[in-house]
Amino acid sequence: MNEISRIRFRHLETLMEVARHNSVSRAAESLNLTQPSVTRTIRELEAICGKALVAREGRGIRITPHGEVFLRHAGRSLAAARRGLTALEQLTELDGPVVRVGALPTVSVSIMPDAVAEYLESGTQNRLSIVTGENRILLNQLRNGELDMVIGRLPSPETMQGLLFEPLYREKVVFVVRAGHPLAGRNRITAEDLRAYPVMVPTGASIIRPFVERMFIEQGLPFPERAIETVSDSFGRAFLRRKDAIWVISHGVVASEIASGEFSVLAIDTASTLGSVGLNVRADAQLSPGAELLATIVRRIATRQA
Fold first, then answer.
1. Fold assignment, 99-170+276-305
2. Where would I find the HTH lysR-type domain in this sequence (predicted)?
3. Do the beta carbons of residue 133 and residue 202 sit within 8 Å?
């Protein structure tokens, strides 16, 4: 129906008030309008709809069956518009709710810097709180209401109770070394090569550890005897820069160092570690306006970087 473009917010609001009061005069008083103005607005809406929405009944008025049908849908639209306006107002309140985000290391260094910068540039007043850590801990904090969202790898099914996951992109684990490492540039890496150097691997509780263990088995490689278990990206970078070590880590964590040539990816097939990275939220909770804005920005940046 092309007439839909002629419907205005005032049409819906006026009809809702007339229906609520069953009176044009009381609706006019509620809206701070004159009775002729209310009557004219209702007539405009009826002309757009092509149906009588209001009828006289004794000394008052009633909503016609066509009006009832229209109100069931228009009422939801009006309520949604009001919620939208309220949400926009909350984004500019200095004392609005803090947006609390849990971000795994791969997201903390790849998506979050640009997302936070765009969030601040939007003029939103809601403060941000960003924490990182192991996926299990962050998901527990999300489930307990301590966080609004967690951005990271798809959790295992048993940890998803009460949560919803929205995929954003996919990434894999890589083996990296510093530029100048004896193994850098090799076309083939053997088990003996891995035994010769300390290897940093994700901790047993980290979400990518099962992928890493399975990958070692698939490639016929023994799990490193000199393994250093860590989820600290700051330690991983520092150790890799100072020592002839190997780091098994999500690609996103070291993407900038790989692009700059500071780190080199070893020739080990890690395709089996490919997994989804996305947004985790509580199934029974609605995001605050500030959190929804940040989630929208994160989606856009993830699409752009994918």
1. D-Maltodextrin-Binding Protein; domain 2 (3.40.190)
2. 7-64
3. no
